[in-house]
């Protein structure tokens, strides 16, 4: 049986297009007829908000699943998984997740709770996407421990680029401590504005600094009002303005991520047949 691939979308800096990327990658993969689960793993609940979820619809959340796993080693999934109009499923988040992060600090297996929560769901979905909290705390460590790979959205600004550097250090630490198979799927440059010297300069620096060791996606997400409008309306850019350049970038990302997963599945089958 082929298990679903778990991808964390992470950057320790907020405002870099992390949630936008998580939602639109989920939509792009869903349009490719993949079964997708998006896990909102930020206490702010931004993925749910970007999909038009009301606060009352987020009461049953990933925090409940984490607590169930901590207390009883079992989860009631169906009451927490919600269908979206975009064709993929969502486990929402709320402020209770902050309390869970505090609780994790006192546990012996503090890094592996989310991995244990998601493991049974890998037989239901082709992709499980984790929209991480913008920090390097225990929630992010849990996401990285649960993940097969990481996509790092990075805005072409110096503070965002520095956040990418800090996250890459944390990824290396998680590889050493709890998840040796973890790898960087790619760095996605977001909110680009080719009219500004700063944007072009930092894009070039990101490519030069990381391109030899990590995959930098060969396309970038442009800064567009339509992308912000789509989130405000509770839609992906793929359903709001499917012919826009922003939608095209996320369609490209979905194709590449899907093809990567298919290649990895093929390699795994080849290994098993030897």
UniProtKB/TrEMBL annotation:
UniProt-listed InterPro entries: AAA_dom, DNA_Partitioning_ATPase, P-loop_NTPase
Region (Disordered): 253-274
Reactions accelerated catalytically: ATP + H2O = ADP + phosphate + H(+)
SUPFAM superfamilies in the cross-refs: P-loop containing nucleoside triphosphate hydrolases
Domain of life per record: Bacteria
Matching CDD domains: ParAB_family
Domain AAA, chain residue ranges per copy: 5-182
Comp. bias regions, Basic and acidic residues: 255-274
Similarity-based family: Belongs to the ParA family.
Subunit structure of this chain's protein: Dimerizes in the presence of ATP but not ADP; ATP-binding is required for double-stranded (ds)DNA-binding. Interacts with DnaA.
The name this protein goes by in its record: Sporulation initiation inhibitor protein Soj
């Amino acid at each position: 049986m082929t298990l679903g691939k778990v991808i964390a979308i992470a950057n320790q800096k907020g405002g870099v297009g992390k949630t936008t990327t998580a939602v639109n990658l989920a939509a792009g993969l869903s349009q490719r007829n993949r079964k997708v689960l998006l896990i909102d793993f930020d206490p702010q609940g931004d993925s749910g908000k970007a999909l038009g979820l009301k606060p009352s619809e987020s009461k049953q959340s990933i925090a409940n699943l984490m607590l169930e796993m901590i207390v009883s080693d079992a989860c009631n999934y169906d009451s927490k998984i919600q269908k979206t109009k975009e064709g993929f499923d969502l486990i929402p988040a709320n402020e209770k997740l902050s309390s869970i992060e505090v609780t994790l600090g006192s546990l012996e297996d503090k890094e592996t709770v989310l991995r244990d929560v998601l493991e049974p769901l890998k037989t239901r979905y082709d992709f499980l996407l984790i929209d991480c909290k913008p920090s390097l705390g225990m929630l992010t460590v849990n996401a990285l421990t649960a993940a097969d790979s990481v996509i790092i959205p990075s805005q072409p600004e110096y503070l965002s680029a520095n956040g990418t550097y800090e996250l890459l250090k944390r990824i290396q630490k998680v590889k050493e401590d709890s998840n040796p198979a973890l790898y960087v799927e790619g760095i996605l440059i977001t909110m680009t504005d080719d009219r500004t010297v700063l944007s072009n300069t930092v894009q070039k620096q990101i490519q030069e600094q990381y391109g030899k060791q990590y995959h930098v996606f060969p396309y970038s997400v442009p800064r567009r009002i339509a992308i912000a409008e789509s989130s405000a309306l509770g839609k992906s850019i793929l359903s709001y303005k499917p012919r826009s350049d922003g939608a095209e970038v996320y369609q490209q990302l979905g194709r590449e991520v899907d093809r990567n997963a298919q290649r990895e599945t093929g390699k795994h089958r080849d290994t098993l047949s030897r």
